[in-house]
Amino acid sequence: MLPRGSIRTNLLLGLPALLLAAAIVAVAASWSGDFFAAGNLGNLVNRVLPLSLAALGQAFVLFAGRIDLSVGSVISLSTAILATTSTSLGWAAVPLVLVAGLACGALNAAGVIYLRINPLIMTLASSAIVKGAALILMPTPGGEVDYTFYDAFYGQDLLVGWPLAVILLAFLGAFLLFGFTRFGRRIYALGSDDRAAYANGVDVRRVEWSVFLASGFFAAAAGVAVGIKILSGDPLIGDSFTLDAIAAAVLGGVALQGGRGAVPGVLAGSIALVLIANAFNLLELDPNLQQIAKGLIFVVALMLFMRGGVRRTA
Amino acid sequence: MSTSAYLVRMRPAAASLRAVALLVLLLVAFFVSAGLFSPLLLLDNVRQAAPLGVVVLGQAIVLMMGRLDLSVGATASMANIVLCAVFAGDMANTGPAVALTLGAGALVGLANGLMTTKLRIPSFLATLATSMIVAGLVVFFTGGSPRGAVPAGFRVVTEAWLFGFVPYSALIWLALLVLLMLLVHFTMLGRKMILSGANLVAARHSGIPSDGLIVLAFVLSSLLAATGGILVSAITGMASIGVGNGFTLDSIAAAVIGGALFSGGVFLPLGAMAGALILFVVQSLLYLLALPPAAKFIVQGLIIMLALALASFRKEKSS
Amino acid sequence: MAMLASPLPSDGAAPARLAVSGVSKSFGSNLVLRDVSFSVRAGEVVSLVGENGAGKSTLMHVCAGTFPPDGGTLTLDGAAYRPASPQAARTAGVALALQETAILPDLTVAENLLFGAEPRGLLGLIDQRRLHRDAETVLAGLGFALRSDRLGADLSAAERQMLEIAKAIRLAPRLLILDEPTASLSSHETELVLKAMARLTAAGGSVIFISHRLDEVMEAADHAVVLKDGTLTLDAPRGGFDRDDLIRAMVGRTLTDIFPARPATLADRPVRLALDAAVAPGLKPLTLDVRAGEIVGFAGLEGQGQRPLARALSGIAPFTGGTIAVDGAAVPVRSVSRGIAAGIASIPDDRKHEGLALDLPVRMNVSLFALSARSRWGWLRQNLERTFAEEARRRFAIRSTGIEQPVRQLSGGNQQKVVFARWLAETPKVLVLYEPTKGVDVGAKTEIYRLVGELSAQGVAVVLISADMLELIGLSDRIHVLFEGAVTGTLERADFSEEAIMRLAAGPEGAAVHAA
């Protein structure tokens, strides 16, 4: 039983991604017996984790009708910080990374709000700045993330491991925030129509601040997940995440012009993207084809959703 | 129509003038820190900045249409791979090599243009997607280890100097700049492009075929990006994956320094040229000052922010 | 003229709910409000009446905190009232329901209605079920037939208006301001709105109510206030004015001096533009002849097919059926360029978005068609462009620092003249005008009217689609009235009057009700 209101419409927007994911599972499972092997499933969850977190952060910004192209650079910087500090600081390195992510979000928000730079360009510029910072901190991939991190986070043999728990917790929290709080509704309102939102008493600056901060925070969290996974830092590893995060959100039914889409759709979109890559692996196709296929899938998803996305009242 | 009157009418070029002033300042800084001054060194900077300068011209055309092309880097990289593969080090292949490289570039532009007009995908995402696909294709077809090389005879394009003091690549850059200036400011086609870029709806409602013009702009941008890739290949002489990737952000930064606006309707080729030179000199300066090469990214980002913040404050003041 | 009522409450006991005294406001050089004073008592409905552009909306926005007045003071229940924002006004108990509504398209009716006041349950989370139930209660109480879970984007203009009114009334404001609330409503819906107003005043609230419909004013107003050209021209309690008083106070100026003289008869002229059963989305089959030199006006309440008609004639959203002929030859206007080729010039209503490149200079904005017609081999003739632009600036009296000034810096009237100059580089056969003087000052209006008169004297067939009654009556040779996409009546010059137009504009049903 779906709740009443716009959230129902928004949840339904995520349905195609869910169906796509299910279809890929069905095809992959029938072609390769290895799909449901515990190892593969665990591997899938581990790969969904960073993408879904980055996509969730991006969704905050997209719901508000803005965009964040700095997500990838923030992920790179996060792995670099983690790999240079984890051995000395221990677990305290993680909050440090998250604060750095928030700082990147603050840079974006400040540029958009006070310098009045278009979010697209502002986050493009900040992505260069953050990437530069990552490269100065760590010119080539390296450093070391303490193995105890890996052991504690990915290595536990639990029924519901940490990665899955983090995904569920983050998405449940965000689902409640967007579906059932006044604050979430203000974010949707801003994305739906800037001027109408203002006329209805929405504090535009406050909403902009919070969505960019959220995006920076979740990108940094994604970076932590990546860093622990590869046990090192890589100043360029995040690059592909920027487009992937937008692709996951769009595939999950989030409208680029804002105001529409829901958090469960974002998760479904992230899962679908990871499954596509996984299917390529299982079918033993050239991994280079993956990138091409991902680009094409993204174009198709955009095409389908942009068509329906042209607003009647605009 | 006299040239002076034309120059007077380029007044919005105040931004370009500022860019030129900044350039002079940077050059002074450059020569001071290099500890020597020579016109040849200056011209050698121009020679090396030419590939970027050509790519910036294309980005400036797309920006004039109120769009953004994030695929120029991948296109230039692809051009390097295609050119070297077709050349295979043999001067006899010059015709097919250049033609195929430009043809491949034009195809990328066509895809970009059709995606943003027919499929109504925002240009930055459409071009981001093509750049990913193009890069994927390059790796897929080369298997990660590209083959071929540019024959020494062709490398004259960037390595040789006319009469010993004008680099050929600078001449190519200048020629393309003049051609585009003619197109934009002296033909009806160019005028219709400006009007479409400044206000798409108004242009459509005046019967201008704006969609076609947007496609044209993307094709021009990709052709120029491929040309930039050819020039880079002439400099390096070999095929390597991703040589042009830096052009995407460099070209945006350079165009913005030169006064281009993301709202469209402005084409300042001289500003774009100054912007390309500024970026190049900044990089040389960073090198001379022994700063890490990555500082370049930070400077780029700050430059874009600064240029746009200035533009938005000016606009606020004037309205 | 009726006597001017004292701004002080007559019973002398309580201060006025809202007292406006000596308020002035100008935008740029355009003085929109001039020393306006009036007051609203508790429990009273005040009708604010005036022509388009008389300053009504500006006055309402001043009262509702959208922008401050340049001079004068406001008091609310005796206390100084200077709202810094609409939000501040709302907190003070003043709610405004606008004509251009602030409905969020991606939220449901209920979510819009209770935005910012959503009922919360467990853990402080919004209770969606209760939210929709509460909204249904509010709507049912008002008698509005609106389903609570429809999305804002799916509502019609009338439904959005009803929702906007419901939002304002739900706040139980001390003062409710309604800006032409009934412009897009049917007579049944109008009754509901009037009833809701009555309930609010019975509970001690006050209402300011802007309307074009004089019958409504006579029925609902305890007090009428009339604005003309930014000045208060009538302020009288119920019984102290009748319809004629209102019209005199609204109009009260001679029309001949700003409108060109019209020829006595045009029957002998050839037919320039002929539509036969032409249909477009939002427009029912339309058959129409416009003779050379004739100006045919189209009137109607907002959203009755004016926009589809203008867009179809210009080729932006072409006719989907029927035929269109210019000078007897069928011309399928399937695109803007086909329309231009057929000699149809078309001035858009929204010059900033659909007409001009605001950041480009006057020169580039005026020269497009002149250059297209005279270019050789696709070269742009720079000399010719400059000469043409200078000439256009003189001919159309465009006030700018020169041909290189960006259009953004020009006043609304001069911007509109730039649009005219572009389209009239070559004399067209047919000129389609859609709200040609919206947001244009009186001086520029006069110049535009003179220009239209000249063109019609040269044999151009003019189609004038406008909400400005004075303009329609002053310029047209014949007026067709649109209602729900169809022409419901036609008036010849001898029968022109605002009332006659209004009666037809209200539609068959409205005409019956109002005539009764």
TrEMBL record, chain A:
The chain crosses the membrane at residues 44-64, 71-91, 97-115, 120-139, 159-180, 211-231, 237-256, 263-280, 292-310. It holds the Pfam family BPD_transp_2. One of its GO terms (cellular component) is plasma membrane. It is found in: Cell membrane. This is Ribose transport system permease protein. InterPro entries: ABC_transp_permease. The lineage of its organism: Bacteria, Pseudomonadati, Pseudomonadota, Alphaproteobacteria, Hyphomicrobiales. One of its GO terms (molecular function) is transmembrane transporter activity. The keyword Cell membrane applies. CDD domains: TM_PBP1_transp_AraH_like (cd06579). It is a multi-pass membrane protein. Keywords: Cell membrane, Membrane, Transmembrane, Transmembrane helix.
UniProtKB/TrEMBL annotation, chain B:
It is found in: Cell membrane. Coiled coil: none annotated. Keywords: Cell membrane, Membrane, Transmembrane, Transmembrane helix. One of its GO terms (cellular component) is plasma membrane. The chain crosses the membrane at residues 20-42, 48-65, 72-89, 95-114, 121-141, 161-184, 213-235, 241-263, 297-313. It is a multi-pass membrane protein. GO terms for molecular function: transmembrane transporter activity. This is Ribose/xylose/arabinose/galactoside ABC-type transport system permease subunit. The lineage of its organism: Bacteria, Pseudomonadati, Pseudomonadota, Alphaproteobacteria, Hyphomicrobiales.
Automatic annotation (TrEMBL), chain C:
GO terms for molecular function: ATP binding; ATP hydrolysis activity. Gene3D superfamilies: P-loop containing nucleotide triphosphate hydrolases. Signal peptide: none annotated. Keywords: ATP-binding, Nucleotide-binding, Repeat, Sugar transport, Transport. The keyword Repeat applies. This is ABC-type sugar transport system ATPase subunit. Belongs to the ABC transporter superfamily. Pfam families: ABC_tran (PF00005). SMART domains: AAA (SM00382). PANTHER family: CARBOHYDRATE TRANSPORT ATP-BINDING PROTEIN MG119-RELATED, GALACTOFURANOSE TRANSPORTER ATP-BINDING PROTEIN YTFR. It comes from the Bacteria. The keyword ATP-binding applies. It comes from Prosthecomicrobium pneumaticum. Residues 18-254, 266-509 form the ABC transporter domain.
